[in-house]
Amino acid sequence: MRNFYEQVYAVVRRIPRGKVTSYGRIARMLGRPRAARAVGYAMNALKDKDEAYADVPWQRVINSQGRISIVNREYSANRQAELLRAEGVVVDENLRINLDVYLWEGLHWVEIDDITGG
């Protein structure tokens, strides 16, 4: 069974290019609806990971209001916006993303069971 951070990274790796989701949505997918902050901690911990985690598209995780949150000073908000724009996501001058257009609905329960070992 994977630890929580590994489960978060498994979900984030499945967010399609050009889509975003929130910390809270990831927490809910993993059956931990009150763990949005822990998802943020997992994203922040990526800065200390090795190359095996280079494929985790951290830029696709934003807050529930559709805004880029600064969870890691190394991964600045402007860098996150730049990466999202390169994927075709429109990020406005207030670092806001239209969730009606770019929100990823998430994984099917079978995929979640595969990640959580449930």
SSE layout:
Blueprint: H1 4-12, E1 21-22, H2 23-29, H3 36-45, E2 61-62, H4 77-86, H5 99-102, H6 109-116
Parallel strand pairs: 1-2
Helix pairs in contact: 1-3, 2-3
CATH architectural name: Orthogonal Bundle
How would a crystallographer describe the biggest sheet?
A: 2 strands, parallel
Q: Order of strands side by side in the largest beta sheet?
A: 1-2
Distance between the termini: 9 Å
Average pLDDT rating: 91
| Helix and strand sequence | HEHHEHHH
Q: Give the total of beta strands.
A: 2
In CATH terms, the superfamily is: Winged helix-like DNA-binding domain superfamily/Winged helix DNA-binding domain
- CATH domain fold name: Arc Repressor Mutant, subunit A
In CATH's first tier, which class applies?
Mainly Alpha
Helix content, binned percent: 40-55%
Structural category is: mainly alpha
Number of domains: 1
Gyration radius, to the nearest Å?
13 Å
User: Spans with pLDDT under 50 lasting ≥5 residues?
Assistant: none
- Beta content: under 5%
Count of alpha/pi helices: 6
**Shape estimate:** globular
Structure explained in plain terms:
- It is a single chain.
- The protein has 118 residues and is mostly helical.
- It has a single domain (4-116), classed as Arc Repressor Mutant, subunit A (Orthogonal Bundle), CATH 1.10.10.10.
- 41% of the residues lie in helices and 3% in strands.
- It has 6 helices and 2 strands.
- A two-stranded parallel ribbon has the order 1-2.
- It is globular.
- The protein starts with a helix and ends with a helix.
- The model has no long low-confidence stretch (mean pLDDT 91).
